[in-house]
Amino acid sequence: MCEFREAFEILKKDKVMNSLITKLGDQITIQDRKEKNLALALSLLIIEQQVSFKAANTIKERFRKLIKKKTNREVLKIDDEKLKSVGITYKKVEYIKNVYTYFENKKFDFYNKPKKEVIRELTIIKGIGIWTAEMFLIFILFEKDIFSKGDLALINSIKINYKIDELNENDLKNITEKWSPYKTIASLLLWKSIEEKIFYD
Questions:
Q1: 182: which residues sit within 8 A by CB, 6+ positions away?
Q2: pLDDT in tens, 171-195
Q3: How close are the terminal C-alpha atoms of the chain, in Å?
Q4: Which domain holds residue 22?
Q5: Three-state helix/strand/coil letters over 20-57
Q6: Could you tell me if 73 and 120 lie in one domain?
Q7: Spatial separation of the C-alpha atoms in residues 113 and 150, rounded to whole Å
Q8: pLDDT tens-digit readout, 83-131
Q9: Whole-structure pTM value
Q10: How far apart are CA 183 and CA 72, in angstroms?
Q11: Under 8 Å CB-to-CB from 157, ≥6 apart: which residues?
């Protein structure tokens, strides 16, 4: 709980968040995808795109084994078929190669740039959309105030926890703005809620 003590004090003002903190607060972390190699970090996020949590973990494990101890340049030389054999689609193989190529050629300081600039820079890479860039900000750069409107699990969790059938843009903004400056921590609670099927009642 101590990792998010400050955030919890703010979020507890929202009765739904207060309930989720009580039930799940000691089960969330932002550190579980920490990765110093940014090309690898983005590749793992690409693998997560539009697949289940369980399937993504299996594929990520195989991918890590395949590229173990290889430099970024050596990863680029791996045959596409070999990459595909771990469970990655051709399209994602292409996107992963795009990421490794980017880091071979560009030197952008992701750690010291504003969020908007990081998103703009990442989405230059073919295969990296807004969702992947936002996950990068959360899990790699540990930004504390990110909410990803394009994340279906988050939207579904809000609908269930806040008991809203039709969630419009205005409702979403009103709910999420209350969580600032800790939208990320609220998101972690919402993800955990839907993963464990533990909701506000």
A1: 4, 6, 7, 10, 11, 144, 145
A2: 999 999 999 999 999 999 999 999 9
A3: 22
A4: 2-30+147-196
A5: HHHHHHHHCCCCCCCCCCHHHHHHHHHHHCCCCHHHHH
A6: yes
A7: 23
A8: 999 999 999 999 999 999 999 998 899 999 999 999 999 999 999 999 9
A9: 0.93
A10: 33
A11: 190, 191, 193, 194
